[in-house]
Amino acid sequence: YPSGNLAIMVTREGDQMICTVQEDEPRTTKIRALFQSDGRSTCYYPNGDEWINMSIQGGQYLDQAGSRVKRWLWPKMSPGPHVPLSPIFISLNRHVGVRILAQDKIIISFLAMGRQAKFNMGTKVQVGAAGRPPAPARLGRDELLLLAFRVRILQLFDRMRGCISFPSSQQWNKMQPPAYVLTQAAKILELCAAADISEELRSSIRAIVNA
Hints:
Blueprint: E1 8-13, E2 16-22, E3 31-36, E4 41-44, E5 50-54, E6 58-62, E7 68-73, E8 88-91, E9 96-102, E10 105-112, E11 115-120, H1 141-165, H2 179-194, H3 199-210
């Protein structure tokens, strides 16, 4: 960013490319979007709520209340008629935008000081002989831990908001986290159960998420 803060990182893990968009903040690494070359991508609202979620089958667009605005399937990803995608454009902030045109045309654009850079993180998943797309790659140890700690941070932020809203009451400590945090925690536990990791690590991730 013009401020000097890191905006976009493109890294490689094995045979997979990962593009991470961070917010323009000096002391945090708030993730605004994550795009993976295996077809999985997620964009987040500034408060951390899920905005757009995509997989090798299709995607969905959520409003800030967590309600689904639209849902689509990529062509040839499922039998029968599919829901087509109307082009989507969102601005993650004043410098970074995301344009979703097709499965193989997901463009991240960065504009600052009169100069522009574009990254195409779309992918074309080949349908197998049985007519089904291949199963998505399983997450590794570091990715699972990162997701678990992210949920834990969201839980702590929610408790802080409760403490600020009810400073003289202990009821905030008994309040349940928001639905989107519970949903993300459940998803991580599902991924953890399917991952090829040790039982010790699996227990540690459960402890982080359920703390």
